[in-house]
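Note to self: the last two entries modelled the partners one at a time, which told us nothing about the interface. This time every component goes in together.
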Amino acid sequence: MLLEINPLVLPDIGLVFWNTIAFLVLLIVLGKFAWKPMLKAISDREQGIEDALSKADKMKADIAAMQNENEALLVKAREERAILIKEAKEASEKMIADAKEKAKAEYERIVADAQAAINQQKNAALTEVKNQVGALVVEVAEKVLRRELSNKAEQESYIKQVAEGVKLN
Amino acid sequence: MFNLYFIPQEEFCSKLGYFNPFIPIFAANFEIGMSFRRIKSLLVVSLSFVALLVSTSTKANESVVLPTDSNKVKQPIVAEAEPAAHAAKEEGSFNVTETILEHIKDDHSWHLWGHTSLHLPVILYTSKGLEVFSSKNFLDEHHEQTIYKGNFDYKIIEGKTKIVDAAGVVDVQASKQLWDFSITKNVASLFISVFILLVVLLTAASAYKKTGVKSAPKGLQSFMEPIVLFVRDEVAIPNIGAKRHAKYMPFLLTIFFLVLTNNFLGLVPFFPGGANVSGNIAFTMTLAVCVFIVVNLSANKSYWEHIFWMPGMHWSMKLFLAPIELIGVFTKPISLMIRLFANITAGHILVLSLICLIFIFKTVFASAIAVPFAVFIGLIELLVAFLQAYIFTMLSAMYIGMATEEHHHEAHEAHKEVAHH
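The predicted structure of the combined assembly is written out below.
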């Protein structure tokens, strides 16, 4: 049975022997001097590319963050400017209003003072007038008294007349 | 007629639950392989048909008796050493089977051109010790086979060195003690491929030292790097896993490049090609044994558990599965061995058969059909050469991946619990 097997499928010991040696030599020599440096270089390069890419991504993100920051700063500055302007406006308005108020108060005070002075002078003048009227009355009364004291009846009617005519105030 | 193109089936098989270890050799599920097989078988059928027509018409018209019967024309690729083939060795006759087998088989001399051959050294180890002599001694001045008288009387019988007695009869008992370590054509071709690989790959690897890591690969380096990357990204990582693949990369790369180089060298019809190394069972057997050793040495506990005591099964099923799985351990490398051997041998036989058509019909016009077909098959063979190297490496990686895979048993155990209650 074994002798009838096709020689094609009967392995020769010689080729098996030399092939084992050849394969082991290849495996050891190539494994050490070809595959190891090649695979290492390839993985190093891949690592390098990966690193470079991630670095680029990071930088991109950084730039974007910086831009955002700038924009935020700009917005903030704008806001601040608006606030400042607003505050300045308010301050000036307030100053104007204050000045107006002050002026008004001063004016009122002056008016009131003037009125008070007028009143005072009026009163003084009235007092003087009263005093003079009193003095005149006394003078007139003196003259009347001197002329009419002899006639009693006339005296009385006169007094009455005078009294009626003189109304205090 | 032509089912020498075996197809990898283990992936499918493993999905089925490791049931049938024999499927890998015979089933057809690989799409690329399928289409090629179809094209090839179609070609062979159509060619045989044409050959049949032409041969019968020649027979009818001319009274020339061809040494080959129509039966042989119908099946030019059947590689069986028929006893009748030896009988038909008359003057001027042409024996297709013998010619083809001569080209497929190993030899002690390497034909260069015309009548010039390279006589390779014969190294024999017998009970009387080691013996080295030129294979030229097996031929006499008329280039006929003769007996060489060394420690014993040696003669080449059917391509194998045998010890004979003075009358030229094989001494079977003594021949069993004969170990033939000769540098045959295949061994020499293997050494040439090893030399080529060493030169090419060491040159490519040294370029990394010179140009550094960061620069783009140049020249030979840029030619080898995609292949290395292909083996890593398409073969090793998908089958073994990103974590464990690095350890097996040198092994897989060496196998891939050795098979690929020998496949390509085998397609070169003249020196330094022409030897049928990767179509030799000894070559594929050695590589398959290496794969077998690597797979079983790197196998983890759960791999053996899945072979001898399949988890998640009833105990009777476990007993039933254990022998099947155990056979599977051996059929995997055997399928590797047969697949590569058969594919490459079949390709060589096919090309040679087509060329032999010219000699069968004894007319130069046969070359009008034979040569274009031979060129076409040759082109397909180029693809097969790459494909087979890829498949061999991929299946090796897959077996390693299966042996080192980390299994998770939670699902199995849960199932078991349910089954028990």
